[in-house]
Specification:
alpha+beta, 16 helices, 6-stranded antiparallel beta sheet, about 750 residues
């Protein structure tokens, strides 16, 4: 049986009983090995017996016409320059050739990317075995007290199995696609082959997907033995027990010039893309799943289709074409190549190639599925959270979201900021129990429900009540915590309702940080619990921080300890930035997250910060209008007075026209007084409210219609406009840009 190759450095006998000369080249027949045993010391041999035996071995090798399985003798290196084996056989005596049957040691090829120390199992089966020869040891028949041919064959098979086990473990360690393919290349080159080409389908099918169109293979990765470019690190590259003179010639390069498919630039010039023709030779080989020798009729017809017609094929059994089949279909192919200086592949090597191809294909299948799941999880989490925060009048916002781990980016934490009528804004932070896709889906449903309820302008306690009912409809174990707050920049007040969530922290302008006293409430999903809202001052310049428990709770601290640390951190940050102005909002969020230690990331973290700027009372004008025919005229006079006070007379014509149209429409359907409010901020905003829930819709009026053109004018002249339904009616609003020369008083 041909000895199983595990290194490019070790000898590879062609037949059982073959040996090598003292330089580790060629195979000595049994007769030469017998001469070694006959003239060995301790058996009455002459002092020159070993030299004669070596000469016989070289003569026999020359007659056989075979080359060494390991490295060729370096150019310019003498036989005596190559050190003896580092580990002799158990029955070996001084001057005797090492015992045949040991698989060469696990040294990586010089200059190869793989030439660095590996862990114990990386090449466990590549050079293990007791009583074997070293890297350049030769082989002979069994000596007295040594191994029998049967034991040698058993040891070879054991080494083969250990190599397969180590290689498959290395392949299995990969998580993503590139790691798995790299593991296959590093595990097989140079131990199993001198070069490898890995082709994968492009694109790779996922699960039960049925590919549409032709099947295309793309060259994913190549790996091969390369010459040594730097002799300074050769000692670590080649391994212990081998000097530089024995590894490289005068040029500092090893002779790999006869390696198949190696071009003049040292690359593997194989075709990058290959389209599989239905019914072609390559399709038949891939359909057969089993690896085939490159010298077989099927492979000789399939390899040109895979590698390209311009590339010569390796001679003899020095190539193996192994299809890569996943759980449902062939997903690629691997081509293993050996140089002419190594023994050709044998029948048992097809079994090894089949094992490596199977483990690689299954690993790629899992990696593709894992990548798809990770993509879905990332997309789900990304769509559940707002892409950007709104910029409502009177408040500035900043947010952060950190998943619990990079490998599990989905969770149930969310935050939101929802503009409300009257320049108000709803601030929401919630946390669904769990860290799974289910938690993320429930979070999305609750967030959508909260947005819908907010658009109805329901009170915060009422919003939490409806969220609790929605959670119960989703399932009996769907629980979440939530904090819902509404900030009014005109009144400088904030209304907060809590459902089992950590309380918010308010950082005042003077640097004082306080934990707001908010009724804790029960989590959403418990059912049958009333929620209580509290109204608090929201001073201008203050910063409200809403967060989830992942920021303040971990295995190393309880939630109240974390809240106190958060409060102290905010106060310290305010002291550093100065007491006369608030700290920058984005920098404040980053500084808050910096308080997390290495062991504090047990949960997702959602953070929402709101800086209260407010709207000054001098920039607000508010009126009540009875629903009568004179209301539009009064609204025009009120608007003209406000613009005169603010120095915005340039907008009088546009504002009076639009106010008249909107108020006229409100008076037509209202039964209670109509409200008119003007707000001067960076824009001029007009809001008209009435008790009719029917929202106006823009339509194109016909030439004979007397009405229906009011909203058309609003749409053409206003910067923005819209209508919002309230629990007690609706609000129609529009905005006008301020003149460039306008100055705030």
């Amino acid at each position: 049986m041909t000895e199983y190759p595990t290194s490019q450095e070790g000898p590879q006998p062609v037949a059982s009983g073959g040996g090598t000369d003292e330089a580790g080249h060629g195979k000595a027949p049994i007769a030469a090995a017998e001469a070694v045993r006959t003239h060995a010391p301790g058996t009455g041999a002459e002092p020159g017996g070993v030299t004669a035996a070596a000469s016989d071995a070289r003569a026999a090798r020359s007659a056989a016409g075979t080359g060494g399985a390991g490295l060729p003798r370096p150019r310019g290196a003498a036989t005596s320059d190559v050190p003896a084996a580092a580990d002799s056989g158990a029955g070996q005596v001084p001057g005797q050739s090492p015992v045949q049957g040991h698989i060469p040691g696990p040294g990586p090829g010089p200059g190869h990317d793989n030439a660095r120390p590996r862990d114990g199992d990386a090449l466990a089966g590549a050079g293990s075995g007791s009583g074997g020869a070293g890297r350049h040891g030769g082989g002979g028949s069994a000596v007295p007290g040594g191994s029998t041919p049967e034991a040698t064959a058993a040891r070879r098979e054991g080494d083969r199995l250990r190599f397969v086990g180590a290689a498959t473990r290395r392949i299995a360690r990969g998580i993503d696609l590139d790691e798995i393919v790299l593991g296959l290349c590093r595990a097989t080159v140079p131990t199993f082959s001198d070069a490898i080409l890995v082709y994968l389908r492009d694109p790779l099918p996922v699960g039960d997907e049925r590919p549409v169109g032709p099947v295309v293979l793309r060259l994913r990765r190549t790996d091969r033995l390369r010459p040594i470019d730097d002799l300074t690190d050769m000692s670590s590259t080649i391994g212990a027990g081998m000097d530089l003179a024995g590894a490289a010639g005068a040029t500092g390069e090893l002779d790999f010039s006869q390696l198949p498919l190696v071009g003049p630039q040292g690359d593997l010039p194989a075709a990058e893309l290959c389209e599989i023709r239905p019914g072609g030779a390559l399709a038949e080989v891939l359909r057969g799943v089993r690896p085939v020798f490159g010298s077989s009729a099927a492979a000789r017809a399939a390899l040109p289709e895979l590698l390209g017609l311009d590339h010569p094929l390796p001679r003899g059994n020095r190539a193996v074409l192994a299809p890569l089949r996943g759980r449902r279909r062939v997903i690629g192919a691997a081509v293993f190549l050996r140089s002419p200086e190594r023994p050709a592949f044998e029948q048992n090597d097809l079994l090894v190639a089949a094992q490596l191809a199977t483990h690689t294909a299954l690993g790629i299948d899992k990696a593709v599925l894992y990548g798809r799941e990770a993509y879905i999880a990332d997309e789900l989490q990304r769509t559940m959270l707002p892409d950007s925060l709104p910029q409502p009048t009177g408040v500035r916002l900043a947010s952060r979201y950190l998943p619990a781990a990079e490998t599990a980016r989905v969770g149930g934490d969310w935050y939101d900021a929802i503009p409300l009528p009257g320049s108000r804004v709803a601030l929401v932070v919630g946390d669904v129990m769990g860290h799974s896709m289910t938690s993320a889906a429930i979070m999305g449903q609750l967030r959508t429900t909260a947005q819908t309820l907010a658009q109805l302008d329901l009170p915060p306690a009422e919003v939490l009540h409806h969220l609790d009912e929605q959670a119960q409809r989703l399932g009996s174990d769907r629980m979440a915590t939530c904090l819902y707050a509404v900030y009014d920049p005109v009144a400088h007040r904030i209304t907060i309702a809590n459902a089992g969530h950590p309380p918010p922290v308010l950082l005042h302008l003077g640097g004082r940080a306080e934990v707001l006293r908010v009724p804790p409430g029960a989590p959403i999903g418990v059912g049958g619990v009333d929620f209580e809202a509290v109204e608090l001052d929201a001073p201008a310049g203050g910063t409200l921080l809403l967060y989830t428990d992942g920021l303040v709770e971990s295995r190393l601290r309880d939630v109240w300890t974390g809240i106190e640390q958060l409060r102290e951190r905010l106060a310290t940050t305010a002291q550093l930035t100065g007491l006369d102005h608030p700290p920058p909002l984005e920098a404040l969020c980053d500084d808050v997250l910096d308080m997390l230690g290495p062991g504090d990331r047990d949960d997702d973290i959602a953070l929402l910060a709101a800086r209260f700027d407010g709207i000054a009372p001098s920039d607000v004008a508010y009126w009540f209008l009875d629903p009568e025919e004179t209301a539009p005229g009064r609204a025009r006079r009120f608007a003209r007075r406000a613009l005169t006070r603010w120095g915005l007379e340039e907008l009088s014509d546009s504002l009076e026209l639009l106010v008249s149209e909107v108020v006229t429409n409100a008076v037509r359907y209202a039964e209670r007084p109509v409200t008119l409010r003007l707000l001067r901020t960076d824009v001029l905003r007009c809001e008209v409210g009435d008790d009719s829930p029917q929202l106006p819709r823009q339509r194109r009026a016909r030439d004979t219609d007397e009405g229906g053109r009011g909203l058309f004018l609003v749409n053409r002249m206003a910067r923005r406009w819209g209508a919002t339904r309230l629990s007690s009616g609706k609000v129609v609003w529009f905005e006008l840009s301020l003149p460039a020369t306008a100055e705030r008083r």
